[in-house]
Structures are given as structure tokens and as C-alpha cells.
Write a structure and sequence with these properties.
5-stranded antiparallel sheet; elongated; disordered C terminus
């Protein structure tokens, strides 16, 4: 009825709810009983799927606190349900490092919550044992493991087939399927998915030098094993960083379409130079900084008279925690305009070209500009 969180941190409270799918008429004759929750490994879940008579105690892979709840009658649905609101995973027993499973890191190991109960009808002549398992969960002990765990969960939720053996997933999928999963991930987290231009850029980052094809095979290793070409981080680390940045600081701007996002440096320059306005800018995700937002802006070079594109240093979640996006642009706009008009003044005042000595006066002008914003540096310019 209500799944537990699929990224489960030890010593952290979580909830779940299970419902006995017996008809409303039979609910009045069912003797209420306890429901117990246990955590089991992928191997143990596979054994339960093949042999439903395995005793519960042999299946436990950890200790869950507050794991017992009495089934209550829901007056709205006339069904018996047990709602767990205060469970916590005290400890976890990892699988033995033998066989093919020993190659998995802890954030790739899958577990699930097993719910078991017994109930009887009437005066107890008929006793039934029932059990069900949750969706797969990944257990972490520190928050810095959560991004890697979410990669495992994303792949499982997106590409698991109905009726599978727990918890088998394909090692590779067509790019079109992966693109759809990434767009849904962004939409669920931030309220707006990814467009064709965004997905095209992601494809070029994963398959550099290849023609975009929806049938290209995307392997799990490309998501969170192999680093991107020329980078020290994986595709998932970079993608998760941008998604987390938007979720924490820039969600409204993303939903309003004010952030171009997944646009390459070259595409940003071409877009800016094709615009009729001399002064314009684009917000895009940094290619070199995980969770970084950078600005590409165009303006006339006062020395050459040619419009050029410049790129600001990326801002991260730490930067936005200190100063919001609007305040940062206000500050940088004043700075850019100050340099621009100060340089024009020096060019007009000294001649066609400003010497290095003249340009060295620009920082002094900026000091007076921000120290006395109302006078706009008039005192300095008049001297």
C-alpha cells in the first residue's frame, strides 16, 4: 500500500503500510493478528521466490526496530491494514563476498523488506500464512552514498521486467529508453522534464563522436562505472549534481524555462551570436564542474568593436547557499557594466587605444563605484 524508501539509511526512521487484500465481507470474520517486517538480501528474496516454505528466521539480513504492527480495520475500505510509522534499520548484514556478487559495491547491493503475518477465520479452524516483499532497497550508512544508491534504484525501477527473478535487470538498454528514464527523473525531482535538445546533448556526452541513434546500447557501466571522456567523474555523478542543484536552489527558474541547462559551450556561443541583441546571456550547466551552473554572455568588445562571448566561473550549491541567483546577477551586472563603460571612457579620453597604465585604473574605478554607488564613480572620473 505504501512502499518504504528505496534508499534506506541505517538508524533513520522510515514508514510503510501493507493491506490484506481479503474481501470486505470476510474482514469481519478475520481475527486480527500481527504483521512483522524483516529485511532480506537479493539472494534470499530469490530463494523465497523459488521456495515459499523457507522459514522466516533464515531469511533475515538485518535488525529492524519497531518491526511489529497489529492489523486494524480501515473503515473506509473495509480492509485490514498495518501501518508502520516508526521503523528504523539498526544493523545490516552484507552478503558474503563469494561468487559473482562479490564484485558489487555496497551501493549496488539490493535488499527488500519482507512482511509476514498469520490470520485465522472464525474460531480459528482455518489459519493462513501470508507474506509479501517491497520494491528493492539499497542500504547506505552515510548520506554521501545516496547518489550512487539512487543510480542503482533508477536502473532497477526503469528497466525491471514483470515477473522477473529478484532482482534481475538488463546490463544494457537502448538509448531511447535511458533518455526517457532520465527525463522522468528530472521531472519527478524538479517539476519539468528534459526536451529533445537536452537529451541530444546528453547523448553526445555519453557517445562522443557517434551519430545520435535511439537504438544505441547504453550500458550500466556508462551510467555509474566509467568516467566521462576527459573527466574524473561519471555521467551519473554529473547528472545527479545538476538535478540536485536545481532541486535545492533553482526549481522555480527551471520550471519557468529560464535555465537552458543542458547546452554545450559551443551551442551557447552560437545561440548568443545569432541573436540581434548585443548584450544577452544563457544559463547552462557546467561541463567541468559537478553541480555547477555557469553563464555565457555576449557583449561588444569596447576595444575591437566586435561582439564576443564570455563565460563566468560556475556557481555551485554552496555559492547559492550564500547568495541567491538574482542577487548574484545583480552584482555581476554592475561589475560587467562598470568595466565596460570605464574602458569606453578611457578609450575616448586617451584616444583610440588605451595603454596598460590606463587600464590599470579600472580596479580603482570599481572600488569607488561600489564604495559610493550613488555617485557612480563621478568623483573619480572627474579627476
Amino acid at each position: 500500500d505504501k512502499q518504504p524508501p528505496q534508499v534506506l539509511k541505517t538508524m533513520t526512521r522510515f514508514g510503510a503500510c501493507v493491506t490484506l487484500l481479503a474481501g470486505g465481507r470476510q474482514s469481519g470474520f478475520i481475527n486480527h493478528s500481527d504483521v512483522q517486517a524483516h529485511i532480506i538480501s537479493e539472494k534470499q528474496a530469490r530463494g523465497l521466490a523459488c521456495d515459499n516454505t523457507v522459514p522466516v528466521k533464515a531469511e533475515v539480513s538485518g535488525e529492524i526496530c519497531n518491526n511489529t504492527k497489529v492489523m486494524d480495520l480501515n473503515k473506509t475500505t473495509s480492509l485490514l491494514s498495518a501501518e508502520f510509522n516508526n521503523m528504523s534499520l539498526r544493523r545490516i548484514k552484507r552478503p558474503d563476498k563469494k561468487g559473482p556478487e562479490h564484485q558489487l559495491v555496497v551501493t549496488e547491493e539490493k535488499f527488500c523488506i519482507l512482511f509476514t503475518s498469520k490470520f485465522s477465520l472464525g474460531s480459528g479452524e482455518l489459519v493462513y500464512s501470508v507474506r509479501t516483499v517491497s520494491l528493492p532497497v539499497v542500504v547506505v550508512v552515510h548520506v554521501n552514498q545516496s547518489p550512487s544508491a539512487e543510480a542503482t534504484i533508477l536502473w532497477d525501477n526503469a528497466f525491471a521486467e514483470p515477473g522477473r527473478i529478484p532482482f534481475e535487470v538488463p546490463s544494457a538498454v537502448p538509448w531511447s529508453h535511458m533518455a526517457h528514464a532520465l527525463s522522468l527523473r528530472f521531472q519527478c525531482a524538479n517539476g519539468r522534464g528534459l526536451g529533445e535538445q537536452h537529451l541530444s546533448l546528453l547523448c553526445s556526452k555519453i557517445f562522443p563522436g557517434q551519430v545520435e541513434d535511439p537504438n544505441l546500447l547504453f550500458q550500466w557501466s556508462k551510467l555509474h562505472k566509467e568516467p566521462l571522456p576527459g573527466r574524473s567523474f561519471t555521467f551519473w555523478e554529473w547528472f545527479y549534481g545538476t538535478c540536485d542543484l536545481i532541486k535545492r536552489h533553482l526549481q522555480s527558474q527551471w520550471q519557468d524555462g529560464l535555465i537552458a541547462g543542458f547546452v554545450s559551450r559551443q551551442q551557447a556561443e552560437e545561440m548568443l551570436l545569432s541573436e540581434p541583441l548585443h548584450e544577452n546571456f544563457i544559463l547552462r550547466f557546467s561541463d567541468s564542474e559537478v553541480g555547477g551552473l555557469t553563464t555565457a554572455y555576449s557583449m561588444l568588445n569596447p576595444n575591437s568593436g566586435v561582439r564576443e562571448v564570455y563565460h563566468l566561473q560556475p556557481w555551485t550549491a554552496k555559492d547559492f547557499g550564500i547568495r541567491a541567483l538574482a542577487d548574484r546577477y545583480r552584482h555581476n551586472l554592475l561589475l560587467i557594466c562598470s568595466v565596460y563603460y570605464c574602458t569606453i571612457f578611457l578609450l575616448k579620453h586617451r584616444g583610440a587605444k588605451a595603454s596598460e597604465q590606463d587600464l590599470s585604473l579600472v580596479p580603482l574605478f570599481l572600488f569607488f563605484f561600489f564604495l559610493f554607488p550613488k555617485c557612480n564613480g563621478v568623483f573619480f572620473l572627474s579627476h
